[in-house]
C-alpha cells in the first residue's frame, strides 16, 4: 500500500503531465491555425472563468495573468456555449456584438476571434479561444473543425483532472 505522500506525489506527477499535454495541444493548434494566440478559458464550480493556459506567437501578447473576465459574459452566454454555440468573429469592429464585449476584445488586442466550448459530461468546462491580433480573419470550416477536435481532446484532459 502506498503512503499518502506517495499518492500525493503520483497525483502531482499526473497534473504536471496533464499541464504539459495541455500546453502541447494549444501550441500545436496555434501553429496549425497560424493565429497569434490560443487560450484555454476554464470555469470553476461557481462558473467563474479565467485563462488557465495560453499559446502565443509573441510573448508580448500574453493575457494569462492580466486578463480579467469579460463583463458581458453572463449566464445566458454560458448556457449558449453549453448548448454547443460556436462563435466566429472575422472582424470585431464590424461584427454586431455588444460594445462591452468589443471593448474587452480591444483591450486584448484582438482583431478576429473564434470561440468553441469545451464540454465535460455535457456541462460547460471551459472555452477554447483563438485570436488574430494583427489583422481581421475569415474563419474557415476547417478552422472550426480543428478547434472542435481540440476542444474534444481537452475535455478528456479536464475529465482526468476532475477525477
Automatic annotation (TrEMBL):
SMART domains: GAF. It comes from the Bacteria. Residues 17-134 form the Phytochrome chromophore attachment site domain. It holds the Pfam family GAF. This is GAF domain-containing protein.
Amino acid at each position: 500500500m502506498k503512503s499518502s505522500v506517495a499518492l500525493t506525489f503520483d497525483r502531482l506527477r499526473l497534473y504536471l503531465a496533464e499541464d504539459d499535454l495541455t500546453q502541447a495541444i494549444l501550441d500545436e493548434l496555434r501553429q496549425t491555425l497560424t493565429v497569434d494566440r490560443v487560450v484555454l478559458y476554464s470555469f470553476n464550480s461557481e462558473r467563474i472563468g479565467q485563462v488557465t493556459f495560453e499559446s502565443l506567437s509573441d510573448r508580448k501578447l500574453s493575457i494569462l495573468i492580466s486578463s480579467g473576465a469579460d463583463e458581458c459574459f453572463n449566464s445566458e452566454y454560458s448556457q449558449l456555449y453549453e448548448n454547443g454555440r460556436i462563435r466566429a468573429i472575422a472582424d470585431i469592429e464590424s461584427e454586431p456584438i455588444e460594445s462591452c464585449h468589443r471593448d474587452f476584445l480591444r483591450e486584448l488586442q484582438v482583431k478576429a476571434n473564434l470561440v468553441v466550448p469545451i464540454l465535460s459530461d455535457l456541462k460547460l468546462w471551459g472555452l477554447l479561444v483563438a485570436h488574430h491580433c494583427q489583422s481581421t480573419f475569415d474563419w474557415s470550416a476547417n478552422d472550426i473543425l480543428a478547434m472542435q477536435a481540440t476542444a474534444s481532446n481537452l475535455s478528456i484532459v479536464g475529465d482526468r483532472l476532475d477525477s
